[in-house]
Amino acid sequence: MPCALSQALNMCAVCCRYLGGVLDFTGELNRHAVACATRRDSAAVARCRDIVDALMGQFLQFDLRNGALRKKFDSLKYTLKKLENMLYELSLAEATGMKSRDAEPDDPEGMDTGNAAD
Prior knowledge:
Elements lengths: L1 H37 L3 H18 L8 H28 L23
């Protein structure tokens, strides 16, 4: 019987480390989303938010007591909120006409482009 108990405790520890790693991954997704938002790539930020939202739905099914996993779960809630705010700010930027850094600048008609051949 002690062997079975030892195996069960070992399995529990492995599961806790795995779940902790998944929760840490959401923090990395947030960092990736910040880089994407810098490029004004709202589609990539939305994908990150969707992944975090799906993980949030799964983690809500757990009964996490006070402990390391609970603290990491709390950070998941804040990560989701940050991603939603990031998407909101990107939508405001798009609505005000701010363009992506990768977009070609418009050349309005009648503007001097600095070329002597014009």
